[in-house]
C-alpha cells in the first residue's frame, strides 16, 4: 500500500507559503498521532503521507510558489470540481492521476481523521490559508485542478460511510476507491450507517472590511486620529514641495472600423392547428417513448405535427422547399418545431423511386386498379351479383344493396314469355393467356370470387407449357396469380379444408400443389420425385373428404387422381408426395364389344397394357367410399375404396372415351356422363342402361355439369356450343306429346365465336352464371336469363322425370 | 419494382382512364401521364383536399384514418389514394 506513495504526486495543498504548509503538516501529523480512534494503518498512512509530504516539500515549495493565487477550490453538489482553472498551469513533476478534479486531499492528518468521523455529503472544500492550523474539522486543501492527486484522505473523506479500509498509497487509493465504493453499495443496504453531522468551518469567500467604525469602538480613537492626519495632509498638499503635479499623455491607438457580416437570420412562422387527432398523435407518440427525438436529415422523417403551410404548390417544382418536422419532447403537450432546409437536391433522386417501391404503394395501386375496373365493369358485375342496375348516363348508378331474385325482376321488367337465353357478361382474358387452351376451372371453396383456371392442350401434340391463373371477379383483366408449369395443365381443384391449396394435374403425369396465398411461383410440392407417379397425363384430380378413414388412415382430405395409365391413386404427404393405388382400371371384357384389344386379350395374356386409361371420376356426394370412373373405352365403373381389385358395377353404353362423369348434387343415385360420341347420358345407379340420352350436335361433348341450384338443369359444352339443358322444360313438352325418348333439345344454346372451341364449363355456385372456357384462353361469363324452372322440390322433379321416362320405356 | 411498373401501365391503359399521377410528399411528380402544369395543379389542390379530408376523418375518431378518396364531378371521376409519403391520383371517365 505504501509503495506507491513514494511516487511523486503533487499533494493537494493549499497555496500557502511553504513554511506554513510544513507547519501544518507536521502539526497534522502530531494530531493524528494523538488520536487513538483509528486503525494503525490509518495512522501509518497518515504518517507516511506526512513523510511524503515532507519529502516533497521542496516540490511543494516550488509548486506553491508557482501558484500563489489559487486559493479556492469550488465543488458543486456532486463533488465535481468546477473551480475555474488557472490560466497558467505549471508542469507537474509527476502527475498521473486523472482524478485530480474531484477532491482535494488534506495535508493534515488531523483533518483526515476528522473527516472520518464526519460525513460530508457535499464536498465543497474551500481551502484557504487561515484555518489550517485549527482545522481539526478540517476542510480543504487546495488542489490544483490539473495536478491534484487523490490522496487517500480525500477519497475517504468523500466516503460517507465510516469504513476504515483505506488504502494508503495514492494509486491504490484510486483503485480501491472504486472497490470501496462498490462494497458500500452492496453492504450499505444492510448496514446501519452512522452519520455525524458537524458544522464545518466557516468558509470565507469574500471579506470586505467595513469602512466606517462606530464611535464607541476602541478603534475609534485611532481612526479619528488618522482621519485628522489625513485632512491635514490634504491641506498641506497645496503649496508643499512634497507634492508635485504632473501630467501625462497617453497614447491613443488609431481606431479602425471593422465590419462583420453574419448570415441573415431567417425567421419562419410556423403554425399548427391543435386538432383532436393532433393531440392524440402527440400523446401516443410521447407515450411510446422518444418517438421523434431528432429529425432525420432524410426527407422521410416522420412529421408528427405538420404545419398547414407545409406544401406550397406554386413552389413545388423548385427545390427550395423546407420540410417542417416537429419533435416532441418529453412533455406531450409541448412541441418544438424545427425547420430543416433542403441542402442537397441530389438526394431527391433516389427518394421518389423509394416511394414507388414501398409496399403501401403497391397495395394502393392494387386497390386503385380494382376501383377503376369496378367503374368500368360495374353494370356487369352488378348483373352477376344479381343486383339491379340502373342505367342513367348522367349520374352515378346507385347500386342498391338488396338482392332481388331474378325471377321477380324478370317478371317485373320483362315479359315472362321471353325465351331463356345466355347473356354474355364479360370474359377473363389477358395477353398472357391468349392462345392457351382452357382445360379446367375451379372455384375457390372459401372465397367464391376466386377462380383458378388451368391452361393446357388436350392433345398430345403441340404441347406448350402450361399456365395456371387465379382470377378474381374484381379484376377481369389481369389475374391475381400466375403460375407457369412445364407441361400443360389438364386439371385442377381447390382444397376445401385448406382453401389456399390448389392441386394441379398435368399432361406429363405429375401432380403439384400450389399455395395461392403466397406470391411464390413454385409449387409447394411436386410429385416428380415420387416412385409411383403417373406416367401418363393426369386427367382429373379431386380433393375428397373422407368422413371415416379408409383402412385406418387419418381422416381429412386426400387427393385422388386418375390418369391415362389406368390408375386411380390416392396421394398423401409422407416425406414428400406419395400415392397408393385405389384402383387399377382394367380393361373389361365385353362380349358385345369387338374391340381389338378385347380380342387380343382373349388370345393371350400379353397385352400392351392391361389398364384402361381413366379419364374422369367422381365420388359419391354422400358416401365417400363409392366412386364412379370413366375410361377411354367408354365404360363406367363403379368402385369402392374398400375394394381395390374389383369394380362393383360396370355401365357400358358409350362408344367413345368419357370426358366427364358427375353425380347429381340433388339425387344421390343419378349421374351424368358425357363422351366424345356426341352423347350425354343420364344414368341411375341401379340400372345398367342409361335412363336418358341427349344428343344435340355431332361433336364431342367435352364437359357436362349439373347446375348447383336446380336439379333438373345441367350444362354441357361441346366443340362449338354451350348448351343448357333443362329436363323439366324439355320433358314437360315431351310428356304432353307422349313421344318416347330421344331428341330432346337443349333449353339454351349459345354458339361460340368462330374458330374457337369451347372446352370447359363451370357453374357459379351462388349466382345464375356459368363460365365457359375456350381454346383461345378466354373464360367467358354468361348469365342465365329467364330460365324458369318449375317450382316444386328439385329432387322430386328429377325423380319424377326419371320415373316417368322409365315408365314410358317399358 | 417491375410489378409496380406493370400495374401502373395497366392502369393507364384501362378504359376511360384519362391520367395517372404519382407525386411525393413535396408535390414533386414521380410518374405522370399528364403535362406538368396540370399535374402540379392536380397535385397541389388534391393534396390540400386530402389533408382536409384526413383531418376531418381523424377528428371524428382519432384512431381512424383516411384510406381512399373519390370525387365524382360531372365529367369524370378523381380517385386519390393518399399516404404520408405520396399521393396516387387517377382520373377516369367511366361512362366513356
Fold and architecture overview:
- The complex is a heterodimer of chains A (810) and B (96).
- Chain A is of the alpha+beta class.
- Helix content of chain A is 23%, strand content 22%.
- In chain A, the strands form 8 sheets. Chain A has a 4-stranded antiparallel beta sheet, with helices on one face.
- Chain A is elongated.
- With 96 residues, chain B is of the alpha+beta class.
- Chain B has a single domain, classed as Beta-Lactamase (2-Layer Sandwich).
- In chain B, strand 4 (77-82) and strand 5 (86-92) form a beta hairpin.
- Chain B is globular, with a radius of gyration of 14 Å.
- The interface between A and B is large, with 45 and 49 residues.
**N- to C-terminal distance of chain A:** 126 Å
CATH topology of chain B: Beta-Lactamase
The span between the termini of chain B is 31 Å
Order of helices and strands of chain B: HEEHEEE
- Poorly predicted parts of chain A: 1-70, 93-178, 291-349, 394-417, 549-554, 590-606, 732-743
- How many strands in all of chain A? 30
> What share of the residues of chain B lie within helices?
25-40%
Tell me the structural class of chain B: alpha+beta
Q: What's the helix count of chain A?
A: 14
Provide the gyration radius of chain A in Å: 52 Å
Over all CA atoms, what is the radius of gyration of chain B? 14 Å
Number of helices of chain B: 2
Averaged pLDDT of chain A: 66
Any idea what the CATH superfamily of chain B is called? Dynein light chain 2a, cytoplasmic
Helix content of chain A: 10-25%
Give the helices and strands, then pairings.
The complex is a heterodimer of chains A (810) and B (96).
Chain A: H1 18-34, H2 40-55, H3 57-66, H4 109-117, H5 152-158, H6 170-187, H7 219-236, H8 276-287, E1 322-328, E2 335-341, H9 350-357, H10 359-384, H11 406-413, E3 421-428, E4 438-443, E5 450-455, E6 466-472, E7 481-485, E8 489-494, E9 501-506, E10 511-515, E11 525-526, E12 538-546, E13 556-563, E14 567-573, E15 577-584, H12 596-603, E16 614-619, E17 626-631, E18 635-640, E19 649-652, E20 658-663, E21 670-675, E22 679-684, E23 692-695, E24 701-706, E25 713-718, E26 721-726, H13 727-737, E27 748-751, E28 758-763, E29 769-774, E30 779-785, H14 794-809
Antiparallel strand pairs in A: 1-2, 3-30, 4-5, 5-6, 6-7, 8-9, 9-10, 10-11, 12-13, 13-14, 14-15, 16-17, 17-18, 18-19, 20-21, 21-22, 22-23, 24-25, 25-26, 26-27, 28-29, 29-30
Helix pairs in contact in A: 1-2, 1-4, 2-3, 4-5
Chain B: H1 2-13, E1 17-24, E2 29-32, H2 36-60, E3 69-71, E4 77-82, E5 86-92
Antiparallel strand pairs in B: 1-2, 1-5, 3-4, 4-5
